[in-house]
Amino acid sequence: MKIGSFALALVLASLFSIPVHAEDAALPETTSLYERLGGEAAITAVVDDFVGRAASDPAVNFTRQGTGKEWDATPENVATLKKHLTQFICGATGGSQVYEGRDMKTVHEGMKITESEFGAIAADLKASLTTFNVPEKEQDELIAIVATTQGSIVEAPPESVS
Predict the structure, then answer these.
(1) 7 within some domain
(2) Domain that holds residue 110
(3) Residue 116 belongs to domain with CATH number
């Protein structure tokens, strides 16, 4: 018994749930931000670029010089920072990774981070996301997640404008 090509196409379409009409293909977004960012490997690449970018940005004061809580950017310390940032972003965007670092308030206590420094590091993150061609929607979602940490990180009063 021969199956006609049209019948075979219908069987295959039903087996693989291929949408028959274009409007069926426009289903609501159900993938997590983690998946849309590309998962752990992609997030790790962005974090690697981001840390290098932020470390060289004088507006960030990455090593916290002059704050009384200077940070020694040894290769080991930088590796731990990258690991924790990756865990944090992965977990916060829907991945299964667990953040093993200390809470944001404790980690940043005494660093005297200002709103402008926080803004500068957020801009560095956005630049890294752009470098990796992350779509604007996903960039905005991740930046919104990062913004929720601002209250725990920023502790210096706003700079006065003279």
Answers:
(1) no
(2) 32-153
(3) 1.10.490.10
Q: In one letter, which amino acid is 126?
A: K
> How many structural domains are present in the chain?
1
pLDDT digits (tens, 9 = 90+) for 38-96: 999 999 999 999 999 999 999 999 999 999 999 999 999 999 999 999 999 999 999 99
Q: Is residue 113 a contact partner of residue 66, using CB atoms and an 8 Å limit? A: no
Largest CA distance in the chain: 89
Please write the tens of the pLDDT for every residue from 93-126. Answer: 999 999 999 999 999 999 999 999 999 999 999 9
Residue for token digits 């865990």?
A: 87
Q: Within a domain: residue 117?
A: yes
Task: Look up residue 35 and give its two tokens.
Answer: 């998946």
Residue the block writes with tokens 């960039």: 139
